[in-house]
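subagent[fold] <- orchestrator: predict structure for attached chain, return tokens only, no commentary.
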Amino acid sequence: MKWKRKAVPGPRTKDRKIIHIDMDAFFASVEQRDNPELRGKPIAVGGSKLRGVVAAASYEARVFGVHSAMPSVTAKRLCPQLIFVKSDFEKYRAVSDQIRDIFYSYTDLVEPLSLDEAYLDVTETKRGPASATLIARAIREEIYATTQLTASAGVSFNKFLAKVASDINKPNGMKVIMPEEAPAFLAKLPVEDFHGIGKVTAARMHRMGYRTGGDLRRLTEVEMAQRFGKVGRHYYRIVRALDDRPVNPNRNRKSVGAERTYSDDLKTLSAMQEKLDWLVEKVFDYLAERDNYGRTVTLKMKSPEFVIHTRSRSFSGEIRKLQDLKEVARQLLVENIEDVPVVRLLGISVSNLEREGGEGLQLLLPFEEE
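subagent[fold] -> orchestrator:
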């Protein structure tokens, strides 16, 4: 049954009831569901033994340190028994549509973040109980009954806390954070478990003596900005559970990208890789400076005839290493060079950013690298 979807504004107070649903190892779980021989085994979706990058890893593979955006060669070295499975994004998209139909049967205020996760505002619902906790439980049960896949959920009064909560009891778990519980919960939460604080920043915070939300909460907003730059003001708010962002059913994808037009067409793979690596470094530096990484990488190629080709690849987790991002970009280039053997423009962008923050930026670069 298809449910009517409306773009209507949601409540903006602490009375809101927000759910964050995150599918468990989505791509890998779909493959294990459809192939019983893969169940209980370490698998990697995408890539191969010798080339490519991992799009997603099963929990059995993650135990060995395998993760999304990792070069396949590295993944195989970490887990010799790793099984590579060809990705099928049309299948994943079809399953995602089934899951979203369940979401929309409860509320029109659904903000998809990717194929496997979304925010829901269930302050007022189309059906079901008044309790957000019971709704989250019902949604997880319906997802399993419909797809035979498990999902984890976080329930709270704002998006930030709901997102953090959904990671607490993964896989196949749920966590509820009530308004009166939020201050104590955040005070004890390790800084590396805050959504939006990456590993590099968390390590830096540790060196500065800040290990928990309670440690950070001792800093004023000005002190936060002095220590961490512009993003420090964001940290000041989240450690105090201040997040008034509504669930936005019309959310635009934000991205950070860079592109360059060359005075001389690029005619060899090595020349293209050299230029592409440089672009990747510019984009990654911008993301790393803001500690805000993304899940989707898009390559842009323009032929001498001004025909534009774009190719994208999405992953189950954010790409947090420069070398991983380079591997993804190079793989997209290799896979599509036959379609565009000569280019006059190359571009790379990263979207599905971890922290929304209003970013949607094309880095301004000169016409040609000097």
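orchestrator: received. Logging for downstream: The first helix runs from residue 26 to 34. The chain has a mean pLDDT of 89.
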